[in-house]
Amino acid sequence: MTDTIYPTVIVGTGPGGLTAAIYLARANMQPLVIEGAEPGGQLTTTTEVENFPGFPEGIMGPELMANMRKQAERFGAQFRTGWVTNIDMSQRPFVVTIEGAGQIRAETVIVSTGASAKYLGIPGEAEYVGRGVSTCATCDGFFFRNKRIVVVGGGDSAMEEANFLTRFASEVIVVHRRGEMRASKIMQDRARANEKIRWSLDSTPLEVIGDGNSVKGLKIRHNATGEEEIIEVDGIFVSIGHTPNTAFLDGQLKIDDLGYLLVEPGTAKTNVDGVFACGDVQDRRYRQAITAAGSGCMAALECERYIENNGIHV
Ligand code: NAP
Fold it and tell me: Is the CB of 153 within 6 Å of ligand 1?
């Protein structure tokens, strides 16, 4: 363990973590930001962001995140790459364990670890991840030029991914477990207007079919008739939502029934004094870049106040 005690360690670099970093760095609080396996968070796996205020023509997700990172660095935020495996909150300062890089101490912590893509959990799925099964159209769409693809899901992400994948694919089939979509009307309308998209609604995915090397199809059941069908495709993009990343906290922070961190309503305060949360890891309801950024600002301001009130030396 190093002798340094950091006033604040921010875990996670999505819009929540980076906004907290911008505010704290600009207030001269010298935050240390730990960047995990997906620097920039979910927006780095998306295409154009059209609803982040200030960009009338839209901005690409990765560019928006790179800008936020630069902005935090400009004010002196320090970045370190690493995978946080534990934060011991039973002692003060808190002890943050980083895989393969030892431990560091922090007076306050901001948890902004976001949420990770969910999988269907059907036979064949895990076997073919990276060989036709993907949860990231932006990352993998390119590999499916002139191929047929299934997108599973009925939310905004599924609509966005289906539309994006038509840039490459010859045909995209949306498989959704209900007859009605969860996606907003504008996103649905866009997908429905796309001639390359076909629909298989009210269908349950049963099994990923492959030849040992790569995906060959998706077996589904048509719920209304009980009939089973194999849709022959080369790619399956699973777009069924996300799970908040809280496992490394070992139950030290309170969570809700879906695993999202609980904060005191209207604040970024968790149940442990000096530990704050922002972004999707604590937001089961909105899960937008702008709400994540807003909550990052709240976490930073709470953190500043905590540092001042407790006479913590910065
Ligand atoms: P979501 O809204 O939670 O939708 C998940 C979809 O996957 C639902 O249609 C759900 O079906 C389906 N699903 C979940 N578990 C499943 C399972 N085990 N098997 C089969 N299907 C399953 O998630 P999201 O689309 O990722 O969106 C997350 C949030 O981000 C939302 O608030 C969304 O509005 C927002 N978002 C916005 C934009 C945009 O505006 N540009 C783009 C992307 C995302 P049911 O409908 O039957 O539950």
Answer: yes
- Indicate which residue of 88, 136, 202, 297 is catalytic: 136
CATH number reported for the structural domain that contains residue 289 in this entry: 3.50.50.60
How many helices (H) does the chain have, and how many strands (E)?
6, 19
Kindly report the protein residue whose alpha carbon is nearest to atom 22 of ligand 1: 240
Q: Is 140 a catalytic residue?
A: yes
Q: How far is the CA of 244 from the centre of ligand 1 (A)?
A: 14
Pocket lining: 138 vs ligand 1, CB cutoff 6 Å: no
Ligand 1 mean position, distance from CA 152 (Å): 10
197 and 60 part of one domain: no
Same domain for 154 and 165, yes or no, is yes
3 C-alpha to ligand 1 centroid (Å):
45
- Specify the pTM: 0.79
The domain in which residue 286 lies consists of 5-116+242-309
The owner of tokens 């289906």 is: 162
CB 215 within 8 A of CB 129: no
One pLDDT digit (tens) per residue for the chain, 314 residues: 667 999 999 999 999 999 999 999 999 999 999 999 889 998 887 777 888 999 999 999 999 999 999 999 999 999 999 999 999 999 999 999 999 889 999 999 999 999 988 999 999 999 999 899 999 888 789 999 999 999 999 999 999 999 999 999 999 999 999 999 999 999 999 999 999 999 999 999 999 999 999 999 999 999 999 999 999 999 999 999 889 999 999 999 999 998 999 999 999 999 999 999 999 999 988 888 999 999 999 999 999 999 999 999 88
Based on the domain organization, do 154 and 253 belong to the same domain? Answer: no
Residue that is last in its domain, among 238, 267, 286: 238
- Is the residue at 262 inside a domain? yes
Which residue among 191, 212, 238 closes a domain?
238
Beta carbon of 140 within 6 Å of any ligand 1 atom: no
Q: Is 202 exposed, middle or buried (0-12, 13-18, 19+ CB in 10 A)?
A: middle
Kindly give, in sequence order, each residue whose CB lies less than 8 Å from that of residue 77, ignoring residues fewer than 6 positions away: 21, 22, 24, 25, 30, 31, 32, 33
